[in-house]
Amino acid sequence: MTSKDTIRQTLDMSQMIVDKYVGDLDDEAFRLRPMDDINPIAWQLGHLLSFENMMVEGIKPGVSPALPEGFHENHSTDAAKAKADKGFQAHGDYLSLMKAQREATKKVLDGLSDEELSAPAPERFRNFTPTVADGLNMVGIHNLMHAGQFVIVRRKLAKPVVI
Questions:
Q1: Is 11 exposed, middle or buried (0-12, 13-18, 19+ CB in 10 A)?
Q2: Apex 23 CA angle, 19 and 27, nearest 5
Q3: What gap in Å lies between CA 147 and CA 108, rounded to an integer?
């Protein structure tokens, strides 16, 4: 198994988990705040997508799908702190955007040499992902960091256990 295989496995497994947790939810569930200090799934998916998009664009500019105008700002940490539930997309739009971005991410991964994977990550992410390989692996890990919060919404809505 190569480092690319490991990163691809992390990307695939984490996306499968996210898809299972959110696939049967609707727009209303995506906007639900199960507790005051928990961001809605819409914000979290947008945050995950924004991070992945910025990471990949920092590695290889121009390969990621365009996000709607204001997307990064509407899913930023500042927007979450302000609890400004504006600019959210429809449930299906997040899933489509995430799928397109993940395809772009994997295409970039497949095209990188071992030397390129060992290169420094984009400057803005180096404090926690020193190399390109670390950055791409973090994309998958980041999804898992948020997945537990999706379960809270599922439980609140009495949705079935999916994993």
A1: buried
A2: 125
A3: 24
Distance, CA of 126 to chain centre: 18
User: What pLDDT sits at residue 86?
Assistant: 79
Give the residue from 150, 161, 139, 155 showing the smallest Cα distance to 14.
Answer: 139
pTM, two decimal places: 0.95
- 85 and 31 Cβ atoms separated by less than 8 Å: yes
Any idea where the domains of the chain sit in the sequence? 3-156
Whether domain 3-156 has CATH 3.20.20.300: no
For the stretch 130-153, pLDDT in tens is 999 999 999 999 999 999 999 999
